[in-house]
Structures are given as structure tokens and as C-alpha cells.
Design brief:
Layout (H helix, E strand, L loop, with lengths): L1 H13 L9 H10 L14 H15 L4 H12 L12 H14 L8 H10 L5 H15 L9 H12 L3 H8 L5
Length: 179
Amino acid sequence: MRSYLFVRLLARHKGLRPDRDFDEQLLYLACVLHDIGLSEDANNNQRFEVDGADMAAEFLSGQGVSSSDTDVVWQAIALHTSGGIAERRGPVCLLTRGGVVLDIDADPSIVSDADERLIHAAYPRLSMSRVLIDAIVAQTTAKPAKAPTYSLPEALLRERAEHGVTRIEQAASAGRWRE
């Protein structure tokens, strides 16, 4: 949910308006479902991003969401860890990735102190970075195929094995949120 709230701030910062520049509902769905691949129900044999995108697509299709709208959400979830790619796949992908990045460490020109306090009061961090990376590492340790060479899951698994902590965790602890 935090990612979605940060995305709203990012969209405003970029001058993007809901339902003019992007589909508000699809953006919401992509944000709230972006890490569903770390759930046990979605823990299949692909990178967590793809497993999550597949599960979200199955859910949305079952709810009668069109295949083109489902594909937008699928792409946003599958690409949310793929910097340089997500930003080129349309506003929902761009914004979803941006919200995820802001949830790690927010740019003060986008997220004011007042907005930060409101968001974190409603949705506390609860050691989010460590817990998230613990889940990715656990999945990839159990199923090495989920961490293909040069992917985010592979980098996190390697960094944890080599250093005990990942660069994302270091950035989160040194960043604005002081997690």
C-alpha cells in the first residue's frame, strides 16, 4: 500500500494525472500486488516478479479484467525490479517501479516530511527491507532456478552469502527512512 501512496506523490511530481495519463485502477492493482510472488501461493519456479505477475494476471482474468488491462498489470509487476526497462513500458510500469523505489528511500523533493509521517503512521515499515530480502533469499535458496544469473534475486542471494547484508539493506538503513 505504501508503494501506491508514494506513486501518487510521484505522479503529481511528474505532472501525470490519473485517468488522463494512466489508469488509476491498474496502477493501484500493480502496486498492491507487486510482491505477491513472495507469497507461498505464488511461489512457483520463476523469479518472484514473474511468479507474482502470473498470479496477479490469473486473479484479474478471473475477475473479468480485459486481457489488455491484465497485461499492463502483468508487465508492471514483472518489471518492477528492472530499472531501465520498466520506465520504457508505459506510465503504469514507470510509476509502479518508481513507487517501489520511493518505498526503499524517498527523494525529499517528491515525498515531504508531512507526507512521510502520514504514510508511515498508517502503514509502518516493520523492517520491510530485511523482511522482503529474507523472503527472496529463502525462495531462491530453496529453488535456485528462481535466481537466474544477473537477476535481482541472484544478486541478493549472492550479497547475503558473501557479506551477510545486501546493498538494498545498507541503502535502507542509511537512507531517509532509517530502517
